[in-house]
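Q: I'm writing a short methods note and want an example of a predicted protein-small molecule complex. Could you take the sequence and the SMILES for flavin-adenine dinucleotide and return the bound structure as tokens? Please keep the output block clean; save any remarks for afterwards.
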Amino acid sequence: MTGGRRVLIVGAGIGGLSAAIALGRRGWTAEVAEVKQVNSTVGVGLNHPANALRALRALGVYDEVAARGYRYQGIRRYAETGDLMAVFEPEDPPDVPFQISMTRADLHDILTGAAREAGARIRLGVSWRSFAEHGDGVRVTFTDGTTGTYDLMVAADGIRSPMRTHLFGAGHDPTGTGYACWRMAVPRPPGMTHSEYWNGPAAKATVIHLNQNLMYLLVVEGVTPGSPPVRDHMAERLHARLAGFGGVIGDIRDSLAPSAEAREDRSGDIHWAPLQEVVLPAPWYRGRVVLIGDAAHAVAPHLAQGAGMAMEDALVLADELGPARPVPDALEAFMARRLPRVRFVQDHAHAILLNEMEGDSARKAAFAAGLGARQAEITRVLAAPA
Ligand SMILES: Cc1cc2nc3c(=O)[nH]c(=O)nc-3n(C[C@H](O)[C@H](O)[C@H](O)COP(=O)(O)OP(=O)(O)OC[C@H]3O[C@@H](n4cnc5c(N)ncnc54)[C@H](O)[C@@H]3O)c2cc1C
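A: Understood, no commentary inside the block.
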């Protein structure tokens, strides 16, 4: 670690590691406390739209991301009947590709390496137990009994953020969207270039290329509020959920079929989670403790913006703090810059999600007719600096 002001970052996920990189490069001494015992990530893949790629470039890791990910070539949309409805092949913006997708494990690996290079110390299997502000510092006691004093605490502890509950109460717990998502990595058939989106009888399925060898299957289904999480017999359940799909989705379903024993072997690779949102009113800080990423604003995944927003938070925070600006001033400026952009993303992602749930076909069609203009507006707004 180097000298300079000291920051404790809670959570070594996308936002926390990005904050460690961005602040480390501005002369801060960054310490990251991650509650997991192992340096790993949960989930399968991520899309990075252009604004997220700009954030990755600002973090100094764009070249590695481009080398390990898959550059988007477009998407083919299929009806429930198997008929091809539309092909979308967007033009790249001048500075970055339209989109790159990659495995979460690769991104985690790249961000961890960059955070260490920026001087961060990453502590695993440890979190804060208590903290108190005094003067212009925060004194923290950790779960392993150690203590430390910091100029700033950044909580990047994810959608179920214990820090959010501690600072703001349980009234801002994640809210269900009425949807849940199955996720699984599958082999990428050679020669398949485009991602595919399929409407099905009981769910919607998408495959996205993650690298030369892997694709990412996402299956979105409606859930009844309060229904218990799906944890057992994952392959069997996903197989049933994919009944009626054709094409590549049908092939993936059939690969889950062979024998009950083989299916259970694959169950460990399948993730199921309800899709939830967090809309924490501003400001996202109390004193010298600030929330970033999903802890403050988990967003429906319909615009693939959660990771991008977390990385942008980290960059804007570091930009406003610089090496020497007083923390209270910087936090106020951070909030003013982040709130409109994050709410814009959350509102549009939520509207798209609601439309998917829409039962009235006339309203659904009216929404679909305006989707092109909506997408153009989102691209225009997010092309502006964060
Ligand atoms: C189905 C689905 C698909 C998605 N697809 C995309 C996509 O394509 N593109 C995209 O940009 N985003 C996507 N997202 C959203 C994206 O995954 C999140 O927005 C992103 O991971 C948020 O990063 P974060 O750092 O805030 O939180 P996380 O990545 O969740 O990291 C939080 C970290 O904090 C740690 N932690 C928790 N509690 C403590 C504690 N008390 N002490 C210490 N550490 C703690 C956790 O172990 C974890 O390591 C998707 C989300 C879902 C659910």
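A: Remarks, as requested: The chain has two domains: 6-69+100-173+278-383, 178-275. The CA atoms of residues 127 and 161 lie 12 Å apart.
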